[in-house]
Amino acid sequence: MENNTVLFWHRRDLRIHDNHGLYKSLTSGYKVVPIFIFDTTILSKLKSDDQRVIFIHQFVKKLKNQYQSFGSDLHVYVGNPIDLIPSLAQKYKAKKVFTNRDYEPYALERDKTIFEKLKLSEIDFIGSKDHVISEKNEVIKDDGKPYTVFTPYSKKWKSILSDEHLKSYETTKHTNQLLSFSEKSTLISLEELGFQKEAKVNFPEDRTAISVLSNYSEQRDFPAVNGTSKLGVHLRFGTISIRELANQAKQTNETYLNELIWRDFYQMIIYHFPHSAENSFRPAYDRIPWENNETLFKAWCEGKTGYPLVDAGMRELNTTGHMHNRVRMVVASFLTKHLLIDWRWGAAYFAEKLLDFELASNSGGWQWAAGSGCDAAPYFRIFNPTLQLEKFDKELRYVKHWVPEYGTASYVKPIVEHAIVTKRTIAVFKETLNS
DNA sequence: TTTTGAGTTGTTCGA
DNA sequence: GTCGAACAACTCAAA
Predict the structure, then answer these.
(1) Is residue A51 part of a domain?
(2) Does A197 map to a domain?
(3) What percent of chain A has pLDDT above 70?
(4) Are A233 and A281 part of one and the same domain?
(5) What pTM value is reported for the model?
(6) Protein footprint of strand B, defined by Cβ closer than 7 Å to any strand atom
(7) What is the mean pLDDT of chain A?
(8) How far apart (Å, rounded) are the C-alpha atoms in residues A213 and A240?
């Protein structure tokens, strides 16, 4: 084993091209050993048919093949990174460990522990910004504090945006710095990991779809139209580059760029306000007396509420692991404001089902719907699922696809009455927040 | 420090 | 059908 190596630890960046942390390791003057860890702390919480594990496995395999084509190899391990990273650093006699930063509470805690463990052996643990365009304290108010309102944040975000933010990291020019391995190891199988290998859903393509981007503003609100990019899962696992996508958005579609800024915004919020991952951003909203009726919750999960747009959305989610953005807002508003069920129940259900699940965006979005978030919709603003259907799926193309029995006698009757429950919810919120 | 204007994606009512 | 105002009140950002 050479004595002048560094590790590069792939996490939510399952690609070689335009990878900031990988680039930093390749240009550090050391030979680079790329690694990936199936984190058992995370895997143990998932069901054996979790589709995202299949997605990850698929892209880890692709990554491994790419490294092998460069005469190197991706070394894949299974276990707890807190133990594995220090021991792997010893095994490969690494001087440094490089990775890309992750802003979730679990990751921050984990990385802090690893940093301290490596420090004892005088090994540097070096993080890079790769998951977002602007991170942490890059976009802050004039008083040095983080923004909690989106519009001024986005203005500042745009005003400080430079070529540096969007430049591509040309890793492929430096692949000669990868440590060579003549023996190629094989990748652990999904079965060995304890997961099913048959994919039940189709994974969206990872091409950055310019055609979608150019019509995004006009088409994104109509669930029957294939007008959204479906790139969320690729951004989540870093199988496409956020810089590349932001560059395209900047040139083609301001509305889409704004969505990417929302993504940065929520990543920044979860970094500065980690409590908002699990609790209300505004503490007063943790006093809301949610009804949390399990029968109603089950009906919502299964798409049997009797409100066709809500049911179509939930069935799309259950079947495909995806839900159209507009419909996500409608079902979230319905769960919290019509059924008076805690947004955490809905967030947890999305966490289990959504292929593109991202903790920061999920908590942020749900709290926006519930009214408890930063810059959230006011509590008295309640989506009318019937009116939303009229506005965005007038011809019932989306609804008929997912709820074929709609309009027949076999379709379930509405489980609650809009006018009654929304009045009740406004009264409950008003009472709670004013007391 | 005080003041002022503004705040992702809505709905309902009445003219 | 269309339009503007009210909804209810607060917090945030910036001057």
Answers:
(1) yes
(2) no
(3) 99
(4) no
(5) 0.97
(6) A 149-151, 221, 258-259, 262, 325-326, 329, 364-365, 368, 375, 377, 380-384, 387-388, 391, 418-419, 422
(7) 94
(8) 15
